[in-house]
Structures are given as C-alpha cells and as structure tokens.
Design goal:
With 469 residues, the chain is an alpha/beta fold. The chain contains 17 helices and 16 strands. The longest helix has 17 residues.
Length: 469
C-alpha cells in the first residue's frame, strides 16, 4: 500500500481485504495528487476505476459543489463506476450523482440542487444538461475520461468538446484512462494541452486466463450454447458483432427455456439494469451483448467469455477477454468459428490459443466450479429430476429431453424451467397431443346421441322403461 494514501482510505483498504495496489494504481497515484493531466493505459481488469478514485477523494471539499466529473461511454459503465466511487466516498462525506441518458431527468435535476461533489455521467446527458444551463461546472477541478479511446471518437468526442467549451479551463486537471491508446491529436485539440502518458499495458496482472477455440459451424453455435447451459456453476458473457444476430440467438434460447439476459443499446435503462442485475445475481446463465454495450463492465469472478462471433480486431478481442480473469482471477475465453476464423484469430492476437474438441470444453465446464458454490442461489440451475420406478404410470422425468415417451401412459406434470421474469413450461410434444385428440374423438363417437348431462341421462332411462310419460 502506498505510504502517502490518506488514513481514511488506508483503513477501508485494509478492511475491504486488499493486500496491495496494482501497478496502474501505484503509477498514477502521485501524478493525480499533484494535478497532472495524464493518459493512463493498462490492461482490462487491473483496477483502473479505483486507480483514479483513491488519489482524488481526499482532495475534494464536502459541501463545495461539483468538483469531479467522470465520463463513461455507456449507461452501464457509468452506473458501475457510480457504485464503486460512492462506496469509497462515504468515508469522506461526499455525495455522488449519476447523470446518464435513459434515466429520469427530473430526478437528476432535483438531486443536482444538492450540489453533489462528484458527478458520473455519459457525454450525451451531461452535454444536454450543460447546454440547457441546468448543469453548472464552475467549480470543476478534475475531469476523468474512462475508456477514453471510445469517448474521443465521432459524435461522442463532439459532445465532450461542446461541454469543454462551456466550462473548460487550463487549470482543470484532465485524466484519460483505458486499455487502448487514444489519438493524441484529438485529445490535444479538445483540451489544448499535452498529456503525460503512463503506459503499463505490458505489465500484466498475475492471472490464469485460458484462450480456447472450438471448431463450430454457424448453424451449430446456438446448439453449443444450449448444451453449455446445462452445466452447473458456470456463467458466460456472450459477445456478438451485430444486434440482429444477438436477438436471433436470444429467441432460440428463450424457446429452449435457457435462463439468459440481453444487454442491447436502445433498450430502456431499466431493462438494461434488470438484465445486468439478473446476470450478477446468477438468475441468468448467459448475458448476450455487443462490444459497445459491455465495454468496461465488471462481473465479479465471471468464469468465462464466449465469442459467438469472431472479434473484428485484436483490440476488440482484448476488451472482451478482459471481462473474465479480472484482478488476478482465473477465466476462460472460448471462441466459436471455422478454420478461416481460427487463422484470422491467430493473426489478430499474440496469445497461445488451444484448439479443443467440443467434448473437452464440456468436461472442463463441468469441473470449472466443482470446488466453489455456484453463482447466486441456484437461480438458473435446474433441479435434478426425481427417480421414478419403471413400472410407474407417471412418465419418468430425466435430463435427456429426447427420451421417447410411452403414449399409452398418462403424461407427467409439466416441468418448469427458469427464465428471466417467470417460470414457463415446456411445450407438449406433437405426438402426444395427436394421441390425446384421437382418444377424445373415439370417446365422442361412443357417446354420440347420448344426453350430455346427468339429469338428461336419468330422464332418458325413465322414458325407455315407460315411466313418467
């Protein structure tokens, strides 16, 4: 732990269970404390959020207005950062407010009136409030750009430049953080300054990250996901290149009653928050997402990442892989594809990639969490079927959904599987439905011409006996 760390931070540092700071946390501590503008680069999962949180909190003055602004490229990353910063800011009597698009702007404006010292937001909402003069940043001391390479591109960069032109000042500290370098010229043009680069991308965290490739035809990828969904103690973030492909797979998995959630740009903030919460709590086996939507997200101890689609470049692969094996933990990166995809992947990234048969992936996933509890409270695990005697009139419930059914036996109670929201039942097989319809038809023919009601049958009997005429 750094000797210059504030005592309040040091106490919480020890109480939280940290042993020592990561390389990036050590490297940026002094530059941030002394007010330098920096461009900090480090691999994903090395604790960059805490790297800029720890040095800056002791410098902020309670009840002195908005002093620190942190910008993130997505609502999810902004909310994640808000939670982390708020946890550490409590010991300094500092207020933290999230300003993200998709959330209720009236509530945000009401909380702005309390003048929180720390703001965490997305460029769109911050720019909107600044342009309408609802957000005033005259007391701003530090601007943090988290995932700066994404923020300083295209329309988002224009939004940041507009905000800076309203409140920017040469005395305001600007710090950029990310795993991928930004275009220096764009940053210098917007903020009109030079940045001190701190590049620790070659200093890797100790981790046990395995890179695996499974030869898979395009029409077999959904089937592979369904098979992995039956494994206990195993979750994965599944990456797609397009929202269209994501939604097609989501529809397939929903039909197969696989517990999963989707994280897609364009969905409401509440829907996206619910999806993330379900995944973090273990209610969802898979989180289907795209690269932009999941940029920078942290899911504690996530066992695996699956590349449903081959990443477009090496940087994209690095960011996807960074969702697992974070802060020195173990993790797997599994990629689906054909021979051409494998050759392209080897050209993209300079890591050792194991080409494994499908059965070995399945066996590894079964052993992945054998020594630790499963995520959540078994929210997405299927309960083992109860053993049923062979001579029983109840259909044996087994894990093999392809087992043949004896149509002469009555159908067992339908088994429920978990999806996000409510339990649903598996559809009745077509052969069984036809058998029931045929049986009902024979019964109707046998009873044809007979009175339907009990009273009618009784009156009919009396008429046949010649009574009550």
């Amino acid at each position: 732990m750094t000797d210059t760390m504030d005592e309040r931070l040091a106490q919480k540092f020890a109480a939280t269970g940290f042993i020592e700071q990561t390389p990036i946390q050590k490297a940026v501590f002094e530059p941030l404390v002394t007010g330098q503008s920096i461009d900090a680069l480090a691999p994903t999962g090395t604790g960059k959020t805490l790297a800029f949180t720890w040095p800056l909190l002791p410098l902020l003055q309670p009840n002195d207005g908005e002093q620190l602004l942190i910008l993130a490229p997505s609502q999810e990353l902004a909310m994640q950062t808000t939670r982390v910063v708020r946890e550490w800011a409590q010991g300094f009597d500092l207020k933290v407010l999230a300003l993200t698009g998709g959330a209720n702007v009236k509530n945000q404006l009401d909380r702005l009136k309390k003048h929180p010292e720390i703001l965490v937001g997305t460029p769109g909402r911050v720019g909107e409030l600044a342009a309408s003069k609802k957000l005033k940043l005259q007391r701003l001391r530090t601007l943090i750009l988290d995932e700066a390479d994404i923020l300083l591109q295209d329309e988002t960069a224009d939004q940041i430049q507009n905000v800076w032109e309203l409140f920017g000042d040469e005395d305001i500290q600007v710090a950029m953080f990310g795993a991928t370098a930004v275009i220096n010229q764009r940053a210098q043009t917007i903020f009109r300054r030079e940045f001190t680069r701190i590049d620790l991308r070659d200093v890797q965290m100790p981790t046990s990250l395995q890179h695996q490739f499974v030869l898979t035809a395009n029409d077999q990828k959904n089937k592979r996901l369904r098979q992995l969904a039956t494994r206990k103690g195993w979750q994965a973030m599944v990456f797609f290149n397009t929202t269209k492909a994501l939604k097609q797979t989501a529809s397939f998995l929903a039909h197969e009653h696989v517990a999963m959630a989707t994280l897609v740009r364009g969905d409401s903030s509440r829907t996206r928050a619910s999806a993330l919460e379900a995944f973090r709590n273990g209610q969802a086996k898979f989180l289907l997402t795209t690269d932009v939507a999941a940029r920078g997200l942290d899911v504690i101890d996530l066992p695996a990442v699956i590349n449903y689609d081959l990443p477009r470049d090496g940087e994209t692969y690095t960011h996807r892989a960074g969702r697992t094996g974070r802060m020195g933990r173990t993790g797997k990166v599994v990629t689906f594809g054909n021979d051409h995809d494998l050759r392209d992947l080897k050209r993209m990234v300079q890591v050792e990639i194991d080409v494994l048969p499908w059965q070995q992936i399945v066996e590894q996933s079964e052993r992945a969490k054998s020594k630790t509890p499963a995520y959540g409270k078994n929210g997405w695990e299927r309960t083992k079927p109860q053993a049923v005697p062979k001579k029983s009139n109840v259909k044996a419930q087994t894990a093999k959904l392809t087992q043949e059914q004896d149509l002469d036996k009555p159908r067992a109670k339908q088994r429920s599987t978990w999806t996000i929201g409510a339990p649903v039942t598996e559809p009745v097989k077509k052969s069984e439905r036809l058998a029931k319809e045929k049986k009902a038809k024979r019964r109707n023919q046998k009873d044809k011409g007979k009175p339907k009601h009990k009273l009618g049958r009784e009156l009919g009997k009396r008429n046949l006996n010649g009574r009550d005429n």
